[in-house]
Design goal:
single chain, outer membrane lipoprotein receptor (LolB), chain A, globular
Length: 169
């Protein structure tokens, strides 16, 4: 359980938000060293509600409650629902982080290692990990806003246009 103090908890200098918004740059490097860059925004509400809005190179929205993921791909005009094999809780990842060296933390969650960088205020500015397909994922956050009031649930949903194909999972 996350200990909330105002809008965040403090774990060894790392501020863990109950809700935040940020712009992101996601760099995914596959085992053959091919790199794909994604840009967009992220909104998070603890413990595990996430909404990623991808703007480049494709337009899509990814919403998760930690158990299911809904991907609304606007370029393909389809929505796909996936059930997660392992529950994901970003707040738990942040809460389990331990100092490694100045401004760098490491965390282990569901068998995966995460490296986190923080700014002088203790806000996470970068998360790096290796995914299930052996890709190295590095996400940089900027224009980070820790929210005093959690966002409305409606703003964290991914609406599906009626004309889109739906794929269940």
């Amino acid at each position: 359980m996350i200990l909330a103090i105002g809008t965040f908890a403090v774990a060894g200098g790392l501020h863990i938000p109950t809700a935040f918004e940020a712009e992101f740059l996601q760099k995914v490097t596959n085992p053959k060293k091919k790199v794909i860059l994604y840009r967009g925004t992220l909104t998070m509400k603890a413990p595990s509600t996430l909404k990623w809005v991808y703007r480049e190179p494709t337009r899509k929205e990814v919403c998760s409650d930690g158990k299911k993921i809904l991907v609304v791909d606007h370029d393909l005009e389809q929505a796909t629902t996936y059930r997660m094999q392992k529950r994901f809780d970003l707040a738990a990842v942040l809460h389990s982080a331990r100092p490694y060296r100045d401004g760098i933390y490491v965390a282990r969650y569901n068998g995966r290692n995460y490296t986190l960088a923080v700014d002088p205020q203790g806000r996470v500015t970068q998360i790096a990990y290796r995914d299930d397909m052996d890709n190295v994922v590095n996400i940089h956050f900027r224009k980070i806003r820790y929210l005093k009031t959690p966002p409305a649930q409606k703003s964290l949903s991914c609406p599906i246009p009626k004309t889109y194909d739906r794929i269940g999972g």
